Amino acid sequence: MYSIEEAYKHCENVISHHSITFYKAFSMLPKSERNAVWAVYSFCRKVDDIVDEGSNPEVELAQFKVEFDLFLKGTYDAVNPSWIALEDVFKRYEMNERAFHDLIRGQEMDLTINRYETLDELLNYSYHVASTVGLMLLPILAPGKTDVLEEGGVSLGLAMQLTNILRDISEDLERDRIYLPREIMKRHGVTEGSLRAGIVDASFIDMWEEIAGHAEYYYGEAFKTMKEYPLSSRIPVKGAAYLYRAILPTIRSKEYTVFGQKHYVEDETKKEIVVGLSSLC
What we know:
Elements: H1 4-18, H2 20-26, H3 31-53, H4 57-72, H5 81-92, H6 97-112, H7 119-141, H8 146-167, H9 169-174, H10 182-187, H11 192-196, H12 202-223, H13 231-245, H14 247-253, H15 267-275, H16 277-280
Helix pairs in contact: 1-2, 1-3, 1-5, 2-13, 3-4, 3-5, 3-6, 3-7, 4-6, 6-7, 7-8, 8-12
Pathway: Carotenoid biosynthesis
Protein name: Phytoene/squalene synthase family protein
EC number: 2.5.1.-
């Protein structure tokens, strides 16, 4: 049996292992909010791992949905540290249950859909797998401000997911997933064959930049309302956004070589962003 402190520590270990960018950004939060973010991330990570690494993801995800429904009714595995921590979060904050359900729905989409025809279809998917995370965190990061911050939170999730897609083209191809909308690929003369061949030419760059433009737009929309966050959470939220947005110029600086490698923002750039946060807020 885990104590609350041990349960939160388990969740912290999950995020520190899987997402150093988010871990660094949200480590700046006060302890109570920080722990709550770790617990929500652990939930999200579990759903993601079922889909990407599960031996029978359809069955495992269906089982997890049942577990979550029981959790909402007050019944859960009392020796599972993730549920212990999340139960404490639900006690302390007015959590958005729909966002949790929508995240699971987004992961279900990954089990049945591996190509997207239009940008609108991709944005719908991105809402479900990324914007939902922001909606989960809003009651923790900005209690009483969820209504005014909801639209910006959704925009930030869209921006980050589009950034993920532009960074992870090669990795997604290995899973036979192409998130780049066919309508945009076709407009620029990019084919599935050219993606699999790892061709980075003017056509590929133009396509990549069109999608990057949409990501930049949503980052801009997200920044419009960030002043509404309490200062204690405004800094880490802005930090995560700036750190993630920096992936785009990093890829440009590497001449769009997204095939066969995964680009990360260099530590020096991360330090500059973090140091500059006080003036940005």
